[in-house]
Each structure stands twice: as structure tokens, then as C-alpha cells.
Specification:
Layout: H1 25-47, H2 52-56, E1 59-66, E2 72-74, H3 76-87, E3 90-105, E4 108-121, E5 134-148, E6 151-166, H4 169-174
Parallel strand pairs: 1-6
Antiparallel strand pairs: 1-2, 3-4, 4-5, 5-6
Length: 178
């Protein structure tokens, strides 16, 4: 038996086009570029590659990262250095971004993405009495971006923890740039 189909007016966008319409190909190109930009940032984090030129390929000169504890780090060099210090605590990390929702407004964009983040504590970090030497978490990332002469760059990246599980949270709370 065939599944009933939704009425056509419930799946059209505000301009009466199917949501996956190719009538605005530049929008899809921009959304792909923004998806790759955010994904590249997390690749650099997991690779612990915080070179200034890599951060400059992700952030505007005045770009910032707002961590879940509301600490703010601004500028590509400062973001890279802050990440280098923060992620030194981990033997390995893996950040899996998914569920991108991107709103374009000319040369500005807003991005929302879910991130599943896994962190393995390095020796000497975390809770030495815990059986587990890792933690995982679900984070909602909100980003703003601007189109520049060099392509899209993030102007702010903000994380909000939705859930966490594992060991070592006391260590995380003691670190203001965590």
C-alpha cells in the first residue's frame, strides 16, 4: 500500500518552490562552502593544527570563539593559541558536525550545527580516580559568518553544551579557556 503524500503546499518554501529547488544555485554553493568551513575548523581541532594561517582561513581578523562557559577569544592567532592550550589536555578528540541549518542574508550567514564531541584525556589530566579516561558530549554550535574577498569566514562561533557523559568535568570547570 502506498504511503499518503503530504499536500504540496506543506512542502513548498515561502517562494512556492520545493525546498531542494535548484532555482538558486549560488545559495547551495554558499551553503556548501559554509558547511565545509565549519567542518574544516573541527578537522583542525582534531588534528591539533592551530597554525595562524589555518585559523585565518576559518575566521575573520576580528572573529571570535565563545566557549560554553562564556569565555571569549578573539582573532585567529588568539583562537589558535587558546585551542592549542585547551586541547593539550587530550590525547585525542573527534568532533562530528551534522544537521547543518544555514540561513543566508546577502554576504552574511547564520549557521546552526549539532556536534558530537569525544575527548580522550591525556595522561595526567582528567579524573585520576575514574574508570573512564574520556568524555563525550552533544553541543549545539551557532556561528555567524561573512563573505570576504577570500571567501566565507566565521565572525563568531559559539557552543552550548546539551549533554555530557564521562569523567573529568571538574577539570573542565577549572579551566576558564576550556
Amino acid at each position: 500500500m502506498a504511503r499518503p503524500r503530504a499536500p504540496i503546499d506543506t512542502i513548498l518554501d515561502a517562494e512556492n518552490r520545493p525546498p531542494m529547488s535548484n532555482s538558486k544555485p549560488t545559495a547551495w554553493v554558499d551553503k556548501l562552502a559554509l558547511t565545509e568551513l565549519v567542518t574544516k575548523y573541527f578537522q583542525l581541532v582534531d588534528d591539533k593544527d592551530f597554525a595562524v594561517e589555518k585559523m585565518q582561513a576559518i575566521f575573520t581578523d576580528d572573529g571570535s570563539v565563545t566557549r560554553p562557559n562564556d569565555s571569549v577569544t578573539a582573532g585567529p592567532a588568539e583562537i589558535g593559541e587558546s585551542n592549542r592550550k585547551s586541547f593539550a589536555r587530550f590525547r585525542a578528540t573527534q568532533h562530528l558536525p551534522s544537521g547543518f541549518v544555514i540561513e543566508l542574508d546577502g554576504d552574511q550567514a547564520a549557521v546552526r550545527v549539532n556536534v558530537m564531541a569525544m575527548h580522550l584525556w591525556a595522561d595526567g589530566f582528567g579524573d585520576p580516580n575514574a574508570l573512564d579516561k574520556h568524555f563525550v558530549g552533544g553541543v549545539v554550535m551557532q556561528a555567524s559568518a561573512r563573505r570576504t574577498a577570500s571567501g566565507w569566514r566565521l565572525t563568531n562561533l559559539r557552543g552550548r553544551n546539551v549533554w555530557r557523559s564521562g569523567s573529568g568535568f571538574g577539570t573542565m570547570l577549572q579551566t576558564t579557556q576550556g
